[in-house]
Fold this sequence. Notes:
The chain is mainly α. The protein has helices spanning 14-21, 29-38, 47-55, 83-92, 110-127, and strands at residues 71-75, 97-101.
Amino acid sequence: MTAPVQDGPGARSPARTRRIIGSDRPFDEAAARASAERNADGGVQDQRAQGRQIGAQWHGGRIEAITRPTLVLHGEDDALIKPRAGRVIASRIPGSRLVPLPGVGHELPEPAWERVAAEMRGLADTAGPPPPGSGTVTPDP
């Protein structure tokens, strides 16, 4: 039996991770700790990182200007970015399709990978080639 997930000044928030991934799926505390240790930022304890996120501004075009086929994937159990946000985003992208992911929180768990891959494959199969001049690919040197 695993000890309860603890948060403390030196911890990298596995308990917070547990809260945001969704309540209906197994939680691997050891994997969450290992992932947190690999993460360069200190999570919610890192006030500078939090300030950067809060103050971040979008410098791209308007979301309504997206003209390519678009999937909006959103976890139904996301406690960090509520599912309503996925619906709002999808409503602003002409012709987009919202794919709610049951049992998924803020992270994309392995059990959802097959569904996500199938949705992406379906989009790719029906999207057709991009219009000329819509982007370029620079080959690796």
